[in-house]
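Help needed: design a sequence for this.
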């Protein structure tokens, strides 16, 4: 009885939804524009995979060069990405698509990004690659947790409100991996800043610091919804300012198109996390 009362109080505190069920509250994100844009990014990755018959370059690099069956693997990846993207746009398939996307991105992080971190932990670039895909994973996890809702089985710790909170922690811990790259690789990052912007190196350090501050804000629940949304907005601005002109200058550049879609997907992952506060009306960040 005490546990039931505690659960009800948590739902009221998180969602302030009164007598409405948690499933009803969690259905709200189905029409969120962040989910739709995330879906479009996954469709974009799938289309690029089918066009080039290859994975998404350094962001999805297979660990073994000239791996047997690499082309087949690339097509499988592309099919999953395309299916997940289309599914997220369809109300009837959103739950299954978000769950599949979460599993797929988890495999992407663990199998393609984590080994580099383990082998070369002192190289910040390996952490950057891990953190970028982990932000996408956090967004997918939020969507699946919201669409699946509360459960009473073994999935209860990764779905519903527990899942949303855990995804926010993952999101927050991923941000310093991205932000610190602006300091470790300031020269390379400065080269990506549009030439018409003044104080280009200053923008590199500023945006890197913003990601670290956003991490702390989400972890400690200090203006966490605002921090997550500002991080998403910053990532979107960077995406458009860096890769938009690159594509305009060379519309056939595969690298620029892949970078644009991946960068947009990372921004969408942050956007979905930011929207999760609106979906649950949860004032804190990660407390249990």
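Sure. Designed sequence:
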């Amino acid at each position: 009885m005490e546990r039931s009362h505690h659960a009800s109080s948590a739902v009221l505190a998180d969602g302030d939804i009164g007598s409405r069920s948690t499933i009803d509250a969690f259905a709200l994100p189905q029409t969120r524009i962040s989910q739709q844009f995330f879906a479009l990014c996954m469709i974009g990755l799938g289309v690029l995979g089918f066009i080039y018959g290859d994975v998404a370059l350094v962001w999805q690099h297979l660990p073994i060069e000239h791996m047997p069956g690499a082309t087949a693997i690339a097509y499988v990846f592309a099919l999953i990405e395309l299916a997940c993207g289309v599914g997220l746009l369809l109300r009837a398939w959103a739950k299954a698509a978000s769950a599949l996307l979460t599993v797929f991105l988890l495999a992407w992080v663990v199998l393609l990004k984590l080994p580099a971190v383990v082998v070369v932990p002192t190289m910040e670039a390996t952490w950057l690659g891990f953190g970028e895909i982990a932000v996408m994973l956090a967004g997918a996890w939020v969507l699946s947790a919201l669409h699946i809702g509360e459960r009473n089985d073994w999935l209860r710790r990764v779905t519903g409100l527990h899942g949303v909170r855990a995804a926010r922690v993952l999101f927050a811990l991923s941000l310093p991996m991205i932000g610190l790259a602006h300091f470790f690789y300031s020269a390379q990052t400065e080269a990506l800043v549009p030439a018409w912007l003044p104080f280009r190196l200053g923008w590199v350090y500023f945006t890197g610091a913003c990601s670290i501050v956003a991490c702390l804000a989400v972890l400690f629940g200090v203006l966490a919804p605002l921090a997550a949304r500002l991080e998403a907005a910053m990532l979107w601005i960077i995406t458009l300012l860096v890769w938009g002109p690159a594509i305009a200058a060379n519309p056939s550049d595969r690298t620029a198109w892949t970078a644009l879609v991946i960068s947009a997907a990372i921004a969408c992952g942050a956007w979905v996390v930011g929207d999760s506060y609106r979906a649950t009306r949860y004032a804190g960040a990660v407390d249990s």
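Residues 1-31, 282-288 have pLDDT under 50 and may be disordered.
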